Amino acid sequence: MSTTRSILHLDMDAFFAAVEQRDHPELKGKPLLIGHDGPRGVVATASYEARSFGCHSAQPMVTAKRRCPDAIILPVRGQRYQEVSEQMSAILDEFSPLVEPISIDEAFIDLTGTERLLGKPEDVARRMKARIRSVLELTASVGVSFNKFLAKLASDMDKPDGLTIIRPEDVDRILSPLPVTKLFGIGKITGEKLAKVGIKTVGDLRQKPLEWLRVHLGSEAQGYFNLARGVDDRPLTPDREAQSIGHERTFEVDVANPDEIRRVLFDQVEQVARRLRKHGLRARGVSLKIRFGDFETIGRSTTLTGSTNITTELWQAARGLFDKWPFRPVRLIGITAERLTETKSQLTLFDDPGKERQEKLDSVTDRINEKYGEKAIGRGGKS
Fold first, then answer.
1. DSSP single-letter state for residue 2
2. In this structure, what are the phi and psi dihedrals at residue 343, rounded to the nearest 5 degrees?
3. How many CA atoms lie within 13 A of 382 on its CB side?
4. Any alpha helices (H) in 148-257, and if so which ranges?
């Protein structure tokens, strides 16, 4: 593949369900739904056996059960999946120091300039898949191309256990017939807006001049113009920079009291902050996710003035995001700390004394809660 970059995107196949089937061989070949089994539950992952019935992630559990009545429903085992994810990351690190984790079960790998040492990118991808199968007893699908957008697109073209290569000469043929919503950042609403003006496929969009796109898509026009041509110059952001720590909760009944939501959100912030401190990390960004009773899901994020793992600072950011929305009954709420960096140094004499006191307070609170339970000591400031 003659390009300036060689990028792989690796995506574990039905990760949560596959781990359960591996850990419990009696479940192999059976339809699995991973998620909360309740009237408000949502499918986190569906095994391929369940997908054949029309089940998929982010689907209401009641819908999935209706489509696949014989499905076995299991709760999410987050700690177990994280353990396997770390094993996956260790394998990827064997092939390249430039690995960007995207989520618990997928990552980008940069092999640019390694062909003389490691071989062709597609051969490296085959060895990577074989190593994962051998060590983890799981399968992964891999896309190989010359940028992140095309590599991720390729990994989704032949699942499960696939390997797809998109070369420069393949770009027009592959992209043109795809729905325009396949372009990163174009969701349902933007897709519907474009359809009204005759843009349904990537090929349709590519025929429009940049100025026309600016009229209809605003500041995002240049990015979509480039993606429609297979152009994506985003660099990989290795290791910690790409990781995040989050927590979310689905309610059994839509919650119509904003104060109750704030209390739940504060508890989530405390849990996320505690995990950051436990792992020696700080966050430079915070994002909030809200799903309403009609399943409309919205998200908003903010960049912090500096990296932090202080509970009160993360809470101020989360509360600020929450208070920007006109409130209506909530089905799910989640908070994520993003753009993580390692805590490398202690406070100096020139740091804010108030911040130093907050860090000490958090440290004491963590030790007490670790010894006596998470709710042994709480704090105010939820309003």
1. -
2. -80, 110
3. 16
4. 148-155, 171-175, 188-196, 202-206, 210-217, 221-227
20, 49, 100, 106: which one is catalytic? Answer: 106
Within 8 A by CB and 6+ apart from 366, the residues are 274, 277, 278
* C-alpha distance from residue 32 to each of 19, 24, 27, 51, 133 (Å): 11, 12, 8, 9, 21
- What domains are there in the chain, each with its CATH number? 1-173 (3.30.70.270), 176-227 (1.10.150.20), 244-372 (3.30.1490.100)
- Which helix (H) or strand (E) element contains residue 284? strand 281-292
In angstroms, rounded to a whole number, what is the distance separating the alpha carbons of residues 352 and 349? 8
Give Cα 349 to chain centroid, integer Å. 38
Question: pTM of this prediction?
Answer: 0.67
The residue count for the chain: 383
Phi, psi of 68 (to 5 degrees): -135, 80
Give me the residue label for tokens 């997928």.
Answer: 106
Is 359 catalytic? The answer is: no
Two tokens, residue 177: 């017939």
Could you report the per-residue pLDDT of 216-257, keeping only the tens digit for each? 888 889 999 999 999 999 998 875 444 678 888 888 889 999
The pair of three-digit structure tokens given for residue 370, joined into one six-digit string: 């670790």
Phi, psi of 325 (to 5 degrees): -90, 135
pLDDT in tens, 16-67: 999 999 999 999 999 999 998 988 899 999 999 999 999 999 899 999 999 9
